């Protein structure tokens, strides 16, 4: 596996264990297991021990990061009235409190690479939780607005740090951790060799800067990657997530019931999206998802418009609830995760770090703009706010239909060839 193959997106073998049994042949980690007897027994032993206690515990710890994210993002929604009353905040001051989380996340994301290089990925994860703990304590015991803002900023920094993973050259620790994950009797020699070869080859690549992204051959990838993130954020997701309770109360619906209903829709739709992503493809799922978010925002906007016109008073709260649920479910189905998947597939491996940094920065910046401006927009015109979000989702449909490539079932090399060909034509 050489330098050129990595730059063009080729990997000889995946870095995850796969278990695929077809026509009495075992496809193991590193490809097809052509040797019978002891070879297959070793592979079977590896597979049988892949779901070790350590794997389960490690997965639980990693998944707990989702709870950290969810509690941080969702906190500002139901707690709005309590925080504003306790600290005597104005709408502008509360908008700062709600949105400053994203500023912290941007800071955390920027410094996460350096921290991880010094203390390792596991150390960085632990370090991030220190920020989160201190932040929540500051919020809990705050008596003035700036103290609460500081706490919210620290929680955001922890989120930004937590979102970073992958290598610092500690081969022995890597081997020990891998053995614990796979089981003490599992043969990890091939997997360890692959990881070592991959990281060593990756080190030989020249480190690409963000400025290197702005070359003609990456133009198409950059338009798609950044474009999806901009449309994802300006479709209103963080405004709705941060201030869902405010939306329900303004629409005359119970905020507690509405929030519970959102979660009840979000979880299964996210799971469905994961299942359908590799079955139906990325583009069809994005089209369905953006169509749903467009419809959902349209329904919420109509609810506020009818409420303002004093029409269908009994129906408008239900219409707002249905609209928010349609938006939440549709976003979870595709627009929530697929843009990140596509972003990781459309850039060559040597550009993924720089591309990831740029796209993450754009995403958090968009998140801050929407979450800060949302309260002001709602005070300006509630119906108009959601009609704007609906129009942006409509633009997303056109963007996906015209520009986003289908990456399902294609190798990184095939994707890069098609992307570069398009850029050269431009």
From TrEMBL:
Parts of the chain that traverse the membrane: 54-74, 94-111, 123-141, 147-166, 218-234, 285-306, 318-343, 355-374, 380-401
Keyword set includes Membrane: yes
Subcellular location: Membrane
Coiled coil: 171-208
Protein topology in the membrane: Multi-pass membrane protein
Keywords: Coiled coil, Membrane, Sugar transport, Transmembrane, Transmembrane helix, Transport
MF term (GO), any: sugar transmembrane transporter activity
InterPro entries hit by this protein: MFS_dom (IPR020846), MFS_ERD6/Tret1-like (IPR044775), MFS_sugar_transport-like (IPR005828), MFS_trans_sf (IPR036259), MFS_Trehalose_Transporter (IPR050549), Sugar/inositol_transpt (IPR003663), Sugar_transporter_CS (IPR005829)
Highest taxon of source: Eukaryota
CDD domains per UniProt: MFS_GLUT6_8_Class3_like
GO CC, alphabetical: membrane
Transmembrane in keyword set: yes
Pfam families: Sugar_tr
Gene3D superfamilies per the UniProt record, alphabetical: MFS general substrate transporter like domains
Domain Major facilitator superfamily (MFS) profile residue range list: 1-408
Homology family: Belongs to the major facilitator superfamily. Sugar transporter (TC 2.A.1.1) family.
The protein, known as: Sugar transporter ERD6-like 5 isoform X1
Upper taxonomic lineage: Eukaryota, Viridiplantae, Streptophyta, Embryophyta, Tracheophyta
